[in-house]
Design goal:
This protein is an alpha/beta fold and about 290 residues long. It is about 30% helix and about 25% strand. The protein starts with a strand and ends in a 23-residue tail after the last strand.
Length: about 290
């Protein structure tokens, strides 16, 4: 469990990125920080592995104040996935994944063997192991980045806008892959995004942030949609534009879901089971919005 206690971060130029932030991030769940540029979401994430230290306040992981821990050891115990993958261009895929385990003392052979297993875990063919990052597609590079983040079997996985640099189709695939991995592995995931649809799809707990790291609302996607805290949240999630207010319309061959602005939001598949809450909202009338 990760706990923020009255955390403030003020940079040397006087900018307050986070102001008196307190929150519990539950274990084995995905917490998503979502907000526009300047909302402090990346600063909050980077304070968890001490890439940024707070100006005041404290952060505990499983009851231990991370300010008392060696930052290098802390970082090597926490998975970290960033935008554009952050892979080392001069190292092959398998060696990129094996890097941190080797830094922690694992033999090269064992680290590479486990790296190959992790490629299986994230849905990559082992034939890619001997390639360099430049020889991979953007989506493949991000999968390698996730594999590297999982390489030390961390309890905590930090993900800083990891899918923001790929096209929409690949992004949707990577989102579903993360949902699958989280279902199988049950990590404590902290995810940063500026996309509310992505936040609602992936998050068990969603934290909507205002400029300067002020919390606008915290809750499950369903709780936030059902009861936005104020006009700012309502606008941010699209409720006031009717984007998430869905109704059925019959078009002869079947029913379709239409939002409050009259735009097509999905199709109901009879008899199927509703999936997780997704970007365009979920229907309470049964079926699966596609």
């Amino acid at each position: 469990m990760i706990e923020f206690h009255s955390v403030t971060k003020r940079f040397p130029d006087g900018t307050v990125a986070v102001d008196d932030f307190s929150l519990v991030l539950p274990s084995h769940k995905t917490t998503v920080f979502v907000g526009t540029s300047g909302s402090g979401k990346t600063t909050l994430l980077r304070m968890i592995n001490r890439m940024v230290d707070p100006t005041s306040g404290s952060i505990d992981i499983d009851g231990a104040d991370i300010g008392t821990l060696d930052p290098v050891k802390l970082r090597r115990s926490i998975g970290y996935v960033m935008q554009n993958s952050g892979l080392l261009p001069h190292r092959k895929v398998v060696d990129n994944v094996a890097t941190v385990p080797m830094l922690r003392g694992m033999s090269r052979k064992k680290a590479r063997d486990e790296a190959l297993q992790l490629l299986d875990t994230v849905g990559l063919d082992r034939s890619l192991a001997e390639r360099y990052p430049s020889q991979l597609s953007g989506g493949q590079q991000q999968r390698v980045g996730v594999a590297r983040g999982l390489a030390v079997n961390p309890n905590i996985l930090l993900m800083d806008e990891p899918f923001g640099a790929v096209d929409p189709i690949v992004r949707a695939e990577l989102q579903q892959e993360l949902l699958r991995l989280q279902h199988e592995l049950g990590k404590t995931v902290v995810f940063v995004t500026h996309d509310i649809d992505e936040a609602f799809l992936l998050g068990d707990q969603v934290v909507i942030l205002r400029t300067g790291g002020k919390v606008a609302q915290v809750g499950s996607p369903g709780e936030i949609l059902a009861n936005p805290a104020d006009d700012f949240v309502s606008t941010f999630v699209g409720a006031e534009r009717g984007k998430r207010s869905l109704h059925l319309e019959n078009h002869g061959a079947g029913d379709v879901l239409v939002d409050g602005d009259g735009r097509l939001a999905g199709v109901l598949v009879p008899g199927s089971k509703a999936g997780p809450l997704a970007g365009s909202g979920a229907s309470a009338q049964g079926g699966d919005p596609r």
